[in-house]
UniProtKB/TrEMBL annotation:
Keywords: Coiled coil
Segments forming a coiled coil: 5-125
Organism, as annotated: Alkanindiges illinoisensis
Protein name: Chromosome partition protein Smc
Region annotation (Disordered) ranges: 164-184
Length: 184
């Protein structure tokens, strides 16, 4: 875009130079025409004068065309400069939006990392709870087996139960954890 504006400015300068040259030539021809007498008897001079007049009209027509082209190029250059300015402004706005998106992206990455860490910690806690539950199930089964064994012993002994053994069995029923620790 900038290169095109520079190219147009160069072309405008060339056309301006050509325009000035044509204007100078036109002025010289007018001055020469005015200096010569109006009536010319020599046919060769008359023919040269007519050719000069024709050339003068052609040059004036070219001058008018160059002037229109010059105006058109100036208009195009102005429009391109305005467009370039708007593009620069839009580029600045896009840069600001992009930077804002980068900040949001970084925040989302931080949040994602935090959530992944939390998920890992929760997974670890879940595994620990599963292990603890399995341990408690094993202890419960063990205590259940002990209680069943005590009940069977009591049933088999019936009435002839010795009081010290009965006290131990009652204490074991009241505090199964103490007996389990004693067995370990």
């Amino acid at each position: 875009m900038l290169e095109e504006v520079q190219r147009l400015q160069t072309l405008i300068q060339k056309l301006t130079t050509q325009l000035q040259l044509v204007q100078t030539q036109n002025q010289e021809l007018r001055t020469a025409l005015e200096a010569k007498p109006k009536t010319v008897e020599d046919p060769a001079v008359r023919e040269a004068l007519e050719l000069t007049n024709v050339r003068n009209q052609e040059l004036e027509q070219e001058l008018a065309e160059f002037q229109q082209r010059y105006i058109s190029l100036q208009t195009d250059a102005t429009a391109l400069a305005e467009r370039y300015g708007r593009l620069e402004q839009n580029a600045g706005e896009l840069k600001n939006r992009f930077e804002a998106l980068l900040v949001v992206r970084d925040q989302l990455k931080t949040e994602r990392d935090k959530l992944a860490s939390d998920q890992q910690q929760l997974g670890q806690k879940h595994q620990n709870l599963i292990k603890e539950r399995d341990g408690l199930i094993v202890k419960n089964e063990h205590a259940k087996q002990k209680v069943e064994a005590i009940i069977q012993r009591l049933a088999s002994l019936g009435q002839g139960l010795n009081p010290s053994q009965a006290n131990q069995d009652i204490a074991a029923l009241e505090n199964p954890a103490a007996e389990e620790e004693g067995n370990q």
